[in-house]
Amino acid sequence: MQGKMKAAVMTGIGKMEIVERDIPVPAPKEVLVKLEYVGVCGSDLHYYEAGRIGDYIVHPPFVLGHEPGGVVVEIGSDVCKLKVGDRVALEPGKTCGHCEFCRTGRYNLCPDVIFFATPPVDGVFQEYVAHEAALCFKLPDNVSTLEGALIEPLAVGFHAALTGGARIGQTALVTGAGCIGLVSMLALKAQGVSRVYMTDVVDKRLEKARSLGAFRSVNAKEQDPLALIAENEGALDLVIETTGSDAAAAQGIAALKKGGTLVFVGYSPGGAMTLPLGKALDKELTMKTIFRYRHIYPLAIDAVARGLVNIRDIVTNLFDFDDIQNAMDRSVHNKAEIVKSVIKIAG
Question: CATH says 4-150+315-344 is which class?
Protein backbone atom coordinates (compact mmCIF):
# COMPACT_ATOMS: atom_id res chain seq x y z
CA MET A 1 0.00 0.00 0.00
CA GLN A 2 1.53 3.28 -1.08
CA GLY A 3 0.61 6.69 0.21
CA LYS A 4 0.86 8.98 3.19
CA MET A 5 -0.33 8.65 6.76
CA LYS A 6 -0.69 10.89 9.79
CA ALA A 7 1.71 10.47 12.69
CA ALA A 8 1.70 12.29 16.02
CA VAL A 9 5.26 13.41 16.66
CA MET A 10 6.72 14.66 19.93
CA THR A 11 8.68 17.73 18.81
CA GLY A 12 9.85 18.73 22.27
CA ILE A 13 8.99 18.34 25.93
CA GLY A 14 5.24 18.84 26.22
CA LYS A 15 4.81 19.42 22.48
CA MET A 16 2.98 17.24 19.95
CA GLU A 17 2.45 17.81 16.24
CA ILE A 18 0.54 15.86 13.60
CA VAL A 19 2.77 15.32 10.57
CA GLU A 20 2.57 13.40 7.31
CA ARG A 21 4.80 10.37 6.75
CA ASP A 22 5.03 7.57 4.22
CA ILE A 23 2.95 4.47 4.93
CA PRO A 24 5.50 1.76 5.83
CA VAL A 25 6.03 -1.23 3.56
CA PRO A 26 5.88 -4.63 5.29
CA ALA A 27 8.90 -6.94 5.00
CA PRO A 28 8.33 -10.58 3.96
CA LYS A 29 7.61 -11.69 7.55
CA GLU A 30 5.64 -8.59 8.49
CA VAL A 31 2.07 -7.36 8.17
CA LEU A 32 0.84 -3.82 7.68
CA VAL A 33 -1.69 -2.89 10.35
CA LYS A 34 -4.13 0.00 10.19
CA LEU A 35 -4.24 1.09 13.81
CA GLU A 36 -7.57 1.82 15.43
CA TYR A 37 -6.69 2.38 19.10
CA VAL A 38 -3.47 3.01 21.00
CA GLY A 39 -3.33 3.21 24.77
CA VAL A 40 -1.43 5.93 26.61
CA CYS A 41 1.07 4.37 29.00
CA GLY A 42 2.72 5.97 32.01
CA SER A 43 6.04 5.74 30.18
CA ASP A 44 4.58 7.78 27.30
CA LEU A 45 3.58 10.47 29.77
CA HIS A 46 6.97 10.41 31.44
CA TYR A 47 8.82 10.82 28.13
CA TYR A 48 6.38 13.59 27.16
CA GLU A 49 6.80 15.38 30.49
CA ALA A 50 10.51 14.85 31.18
CA GLY A 51 12.07 13.81 27.89
CA ARG A 52 13.76 10.78 29.33
CA ILE A 53 13.43 7.69 31.53
CA GLY A 54 16.82 6.85 33.01
CA ASP A 55 19.30 6.33 30.18
CA TYR A 56 16.56 6.39 27.52
CA ILE A 57 16.49 9.94 26.17
CA VAL A 58 14.04 11.31 23.61
CA HIS A 59 15.66 13.10 20.68
CA PRO A 60 12.78 14.76 18.80
CA PRO A 61 11.05 14.22 16.50
CA PHE A 62 9.86 11.07 18.23
CA VAL A 63 6.66 9.01 18.09
CA LEU A 64 5.25 7.75 21.39
CA GLY A 65 2.78 4.89 21.99
CA HIS A 66 3.26 1.13 22.40
CA GLU A 67 -0.20 -0.29 23.20
CA PRO A 68 -1.83 -0.85 19.77
CA GLY A 69 -4.82 -2.66 18.36
CA GLY A 70 -5.84 -2.61 14.72
CA VAL A 71 -6.67 -4.41 11.47
CA VAL A 72 -4.32 -6.15 9.03
CA VAL A 73 -4.48 -4.44 5.62
CA GLU A 74 -1.49 -6.02 3.86
CA ILE A 75 0.68 -9.10 4.42
CA GLY A 76 4.29 -9.84 3.59
CA SER A 77 5.20 -12.57 1.13
CA ASP A 78 6.20 -15.08 3.86
CA VAL A 79 3.18 -14.58 6.12
CA CYS A 80 0.73 -17.48 6.23
CA LYS A 81 -1.08 -17.32 9.60
CA LEU A 82 -2.71 -13.92 9.18
CA LYS A 83 -4.82 -12.46 6.40
CA VAL A 84 -6.14 -9.08 5.36
CA GLY A 85 -9.06 -8.13 7.59
CA ASP A 86 -7.82 -9.89 10.73
CA ARG A 87 -8.11 -7.75 13.84
CA VAL A 88 -4.97 -7.96 15.97
CA ALA A 89 -3.25 -6.92 19.18
CA LEU A 90 0.41 -6.10 18.64
CA GLU A 91 3.10 -7.17 21.08
CA PRO A 92 5.49 -4.20 20.86
CA GLY A 93 8.90 -5.78 21.42
CA LYS A 94 10.89 -7.54 18.68
CA THR A 95 13.80 -9.52 20.15
CA CYS A 96 16.97 -10.90 18.56
CA GLY A 97 16.03 -14.59 18.88
CA HIS A 98 19.66 -15.65 19.36
CA CYS A 99 20.85 -14.54 22.81
CA GLU A 100 20.77 -16.80 25.87
CA PHE A 101 17.53 -15.20 27.05
CA CYS A 102 15.72 -15.68 23.75
CA ARG A 103 17.02 -19.24 23.42
CA THR A 104 15.75 -20.14 26.92
CA GLY A 105 12.33 -18.56 26.40
CA ARG A 106 12.98 -15.47 28.55
CA TYR A 107 12.85 -13.18 25.56
CA ASN A 108 11.63 -10.19 27.59
CA LEU A 109 15.19 -9.96 28.94
CA CYS A 110 16.79 -9.77 25.48
CA PRO A 111 19.38 -6.95 25.56
CA ASP A 112 18.81 -6.16 21.89
CA VAL A 113 15.02 -5.81 21.95
CA ILE A 114 13.48 -3.26 19.58
CA PHE A 115 10.49 -1.94 21.52
CA PHE A 116 7.91 0.59 20.31
CA ALA A 117 8.37 4.06 21.86
CA THR A 118 11.61 3.21 23.65
CA PRO A 119 14.20 5.67 22.28
CA PRO A 120 15.48 5.64 19.63
CA VAL A 121 12.67 3.37 18.31
CA ASP A 122 9.50 5.21 17.25
CA GLY A 123 6.19 4.15 18.68
CA VAL A 124 2.74 3.86 17.13
CA PHE A 125 0.79 7.07 17.61
CA GLN A 126 0.23 6.90 13.85
CA GLU A 127 -2.24 5.48 11.35
CA TYR A 128 -0.27 2.46 10.11
CA VAL A 129 2.60 0.28 11.30
CA ALA A 130 4.51 -2.62 9.74
CA HIS A 131 5.21 -5.26 12.38
CA GLU A 132 6.46 -8.82 12.68
CA ALA A 133 3.50 -11.12 11.95
CA ALA A 134 4.52 -13.46 14.79
CA LEU A 135 3.97 -10.53 17.20
CA CYS A 136 0.48 -9.73 15.88
CA PHE A 137 -2.11 -11.81 17.72
CA LYS A 138 -5.48 -12.37 16.09
CA LEU A 139 -8.43 -11.25 18.20
CA PRO A 140 -11.53 -13.43 18.61
CA ASP A 141 -14.78 -12.07 17.18
CA ASN A 142 -15.97 -10.94 20.62
CA VAL A 143 -12.81 -8.95 21.44
CA SER A 144 -12.66 -5.42 20.02
CA THR A 145 -9.58 -3.61 18.80
CA LEU A 146 -10.02 -1.22 21.74
CA GLU A 147 -9.64 -4.23 24.04
CA GLY A 148 -6.78 -5.36 21.82
CA ALA A 149 -4.95 -2.13 22.62
CA LEU A 150 -5.31 -2.92 26.32
CA ILE A 151 -3.76 -6.38 26.07
CA GLU A 152 -0.27 -4.90 26.46
CA PRO A 153 -0.78 -3.54 30.02
CA LEU A 154 -2.91 -6.58 30.88
CA ALA A 155 0.06 -8.77 29.92
CA VAL A 156 2.10 -6.99 32.59
CA GLY A 157 -0.58 -7.75 35.16
CA PHE A 158 -0.73 -11.43 34.21
CA HIS A 159 3.07 -11.72 34.26
CA ALA A 160 3.04 -10.29 37.79
CA ALA A 161 0.24 -12.60 38.96
CA LEU A 162 1.80 -15.71 37.43
CA THR A 163 5.26 -14.84 38.74
CA GLY A 164 3.73 -14.59 42.19
CA GLY A 165 2.10 -18.01 41.82
CA ALA A 166 -1.44 -16.62 42.09
CA ARG A 167 -4.07 -19.32 42.50
CA ILE A 168 -7.56 -20.00 43.78
CA GLY A 169 -7.97 -19.79 47.53
CA GLN A 170 -5.34 -17.11 48.08
CA THR A 171 -5.72 -13.57 49.36
CA ALA A 172 -3.73 -10.68 47.93
CA LEU A 173 -2.90 -6.98 48.10
CA VAL A 174 -2.04 -4.73 45.16
CA THR A 175 -0.34 -1.50 46.18
CA GLY A 176 -1.20 1.23 43.69
CA ALA A 177 -4.45 1.49 41.73
CA GLY A 178 -3.13 3.06 38.56
CA CYS A 179 -3.39 1.19 35.27
CA ILE A 180 -0.80 -1.49 36.15
CA GLY A 181 -2.24 -1.96 39.62
CA LEU A 182 -5.72 -2.39 38.16
CA VAL A 183 -4.65 -4.91 35.52
CA SER A 184 -2.72 -6.81 38.20
CA MET A 185 -5.89 -7.00 40.26
CA LEU A 186 -7.87 -8.20 37.25
CA ALA A 187 -5.23 -10.86 36.51
CA LEU A 188 -5.27 -12.04 40.12
CA LYS A 189 -9.03 -12.43 40.03
CA ALA A 190 -8.82 -14.30 36.71
CA GLN A 191 -6.37 -16.67 38.40
CA GLY A 192 -8.90 -17.37 41.13
CA VAL A 193 -7.80 -14.97 43.87
CA SER A 194 -11.21 -13.84 45.07
CA ARG A 195 -10.21 -11.34 47.76
CA VAL A 196 -7.88 -8.68 46.41
CA TYR A 197 -7.21 -5.58 48.52
CA MET A 198 -5.98 -2.39 46.84
CA THR A 199 -4.32 0.72 48.21
CA ASP A 200 -3.67 4.13 46.69
CA VAL A 201 -3.87 7.78 47.70
CA VAL A 202 -6.12 8.91 44.81
CA ASP A 203 -9.85 8.38 45.37
CA LYS A 204 -10.73 8.21 41.63
CA ARG A 205 -8.39 5.27 41.19
CA LEU A 206 -9.82 3.52 44.23
CA GLU A 207 -13.35 4.03 42.90
CA LYS A 208 -12.27 2.43 39.63
CA ALA A 209 -10.72 -0.47 41.55
CA ARG A 210 -13.98 -1.09 43.38
CA SER A 211 -16.00 -0.95 40.17
CA LEU A 212 -13.68 -3.52 38.59
CA GLY A 213 -14.03 -5.96 41.46
CA ALA A 214 -11.51 -5.19 44.19
CA PHE A 215 -12.57 -6.81 47.46
CA ARG A 216 -11.57 -3.72 49.43
CA SER A 217 -9.86 -0.51 48.32
CA VAL A 218 -8.22 1.76 50.86
CA ASN A 219 -6.92 5.31 50.72
CA ALA A 220 -3.64 4.80 52.57
CA LYS A 221 -3.56 8.49 53.56
CA GLU A 222 -6.88 8.22 55.35
CA GLN A 223 -7.03 4.64 56.67
CA ASP A 224 -4.50 2.08 57.81
CA PRO A 225 -4.73 -0.78 55.30
CA LEU A 226 -2.77 -3.07 57.60
CA ALA A 227 -5.42 -2.76 60.31
CA LEU A 228 -8.17 -3.58 57.82
CA ILE A 229 -6.26 -6.58 56.47
CA ALA A 230 -5.42 -7.83 59.96
CA GLU A 231 -9.07 -7.56 60.99
CA ASN A 232 -10.39 -9.42 57.95
CA GLU A 233 -7.63 -11.84 56.97
CA GLY A 234 -4.93 -11.81 59.60
CA ALA A 235 -2.31 -11.77 56.84
CA LEU A 236 -2.11 -12.28 53.07
CA ASP A 237 -0.55 -14.80 50.70
CA LEU A 238 0.60 -12.46 47.95
CA VAL A 239 1.41 -8.79 47.38
CA ILE A 240 1.98 -7.08 44.03
CA GLU A 241 3.75 -3.72 44.44
CA THR A 242 3.20 -1.33 41.52
CA THR A 243 4.04 2.10 42.97
CA GLY A 244 7.81 2.05 43.46
CA SER A 245 7.17 3.61 46.88
CA ASP A 246 9.18 2.61 49.97
CA ALA A 247 6.11 3.08 52.15
CA ALA A 248 3.89 0.90 49.95
CA ALA A 249 6.53 -1.84 49.76
CA ALA A 250 6.94 -1.77 53.55
CA GLN A 251 3.17 -2.12 53.94
CA GLY A 252 3.27 -5.07 51.57
CA ILE A 253 5.93 -6.80 53.64
CA ALA A 254 3.94 -6.15 56.82
CA ALA A 255 0.72 -7.46 55.26
CA LEU A 256 2.17 -10.82 54.20
CA LYS A 257 1.91 -14.00 56.19
CA LYS A 258 5.01 -16.08 56.87
CA GLY A 259 6.18 -17.73 53.67
CA GLY A 260 4.28 -15.22 51.52
CA THR A 261 5.38 -13.71 48.22
CA LEU A 262 5.97 -10.11 47.15
CA VAL A 263 6.28 -9.23 43.45
CA PHE A 264 7.85 -5.89 42.58
CA VAL A 265 6.50 -4.26 39.42
CA GLY A 266 6.79 -0.49 39.92
CA TYR A 267 10.01 1.47 39.50
CA SER A 268 11.07 3.79 42.31
CA PRO A 269 11.74 7.39 41.20
CA GLY A 270 15.43 7.23 42.08
CA GLY A 271 15.93 3.60 41.18
CA ALA A 272 16.51 2.53 44.81
CA MET A 273 14.28 1.48 47.70
CA THR A 274 14.73 1.20 51.46
CA LEU A 275 12.95 -1.89 52.77
CA PRO A 276 12.43 -3.43 56.24
CA LEU A 277 14.39 -6.56 55.34
CA GLY A 278 14.45 -7.72 58.94
CA LYS A 279 10.69 -8.29 58.79
CA ALA A 280 11.03 -10.04 55.44
CA LEU A 281 13.73 -12.32 56.85
CA ASP A 282 11.67 -13.17 59.92
CA LYS A 283 8.80 -14.25 57.65
CA GLU A 284 11.01 -16.04 55.10
CA LEU A 285 9.31 -14.15 52.31
CA THR A 286 9.87 -14.77 48.63
CA MET A 287 10.60 -11.52 46.78
CA LYS A 288 10.47 -11.42 42.99
CA THR A 289 10.67 -8.82 40.24
CA ILE A 290 9.24 -8.69 36.73
CA PHE A 291 10.19 -6.89 33.54
CA ARG A 292 7.37 -6.48 31.03
CA TYR A 293 6.11 -9.99 30.09
CA ARG A 294 6.75 -13.08 28.00
CA HIS A 295 4.45 -15.65 26.38
CA ILE A 296 1.42 -13.85 27.84
CA TYR A 297 -0.55 -12.35 24.93
CA PRO A 298 -2.51 -15.51 24.00
CA LEU A 299 -3.45 -16.08 27.65
CA ALA A 300 -4.50 -12.47 28.17
CA ILE A 301 -6.57 -12.37 24.98
CA ASP A 302 -8.27 -15.63 25.94
CA ALA A 303 -9.09 -14.28 29.41
CA VAL A 304 -10.80 -11.25 27.85
CA ALA A 305 -12.64 -13.38 25.28
CA ARG A 306 -13.98 -15.73 27.98
CA GLY A 307 -15.20 -12.87 30.15
CA LEU A 308 -12.70 -13.53 32.93
CA VAL A 309 -11.31 -10.01 32.62
CA ASN A 310 -13.31 -6.83 32.02
CA ILE A 311 -10.47 -4.86 30.49
CA ARG A 312 -12.63 -2.39 28.55
CA ASP A 313 -13.90 -0.64 31.66
CA ILE A 314 -10.40 0.29 32.77
CA VAL A 315 -10.56 3.16 30.27
CA THR A 316 -11.62 6.49 31.73
CA ASN A 317 -10.86 8.80 28.78
CA LEU A 318 -11.01 8.26 25.01
CA PHE A 319 -9.46 10.94 22.78
CA ASP A 320 -9.53 11.48 19.01
CA PHE A 321 -6.20 11.26 17.24
CA ASP A 322 -6.32 14.88 16.08
CA ASP A 323 -6.76 15.90 19.74
CA ILE A 324 -3.56 14.21 20.89
CA GLN A 325 -1.92 17.37 22.26
CA ASN A 326 -4.89 17.87 24.57
CA ALA A 327 -4.94 14.15 25.37
CA MET A 328 -1.32 14.16 26.52
CA ASP A 329 -1.64 17.43 28.42
CA ARG A 330 -4.75 16.32 30.30
CA SER A 331 -3.30 12.89 31.04
CA VAL A 332 -0.17 14.49 32.52
CA HIS A 333 -1.83 17.27 34.49
CA ASN A 334 -5.02 15.52 35.61
CA LYS A 335 -3.67 12.26 37.02
CA ALA A 336 -6.09 12.40 39.93
CA GLU A 337 -9.03 12.01 37.52
CA ILE A 338 -7.66 10.18 34.48
CA VAL A 339 -6.82 6.55 35.23
CA LYS A 340 -6.37 5.29 31.65
CA SER A 341 -6.42 7.23 28.40
CA VAL A 342 -6.73 5.69 24.94
CA ILE A 343 -6.21 7.43 21.58
CA LYS A 344 -8.75 6.55 18.88
CA ILE A 345 -6.68 6.50 15.70
CA ALA A 346 -9.41 5.21 13.35
CA GLY A 347 -12.41 2.85 13.30
Answer: alpha beta
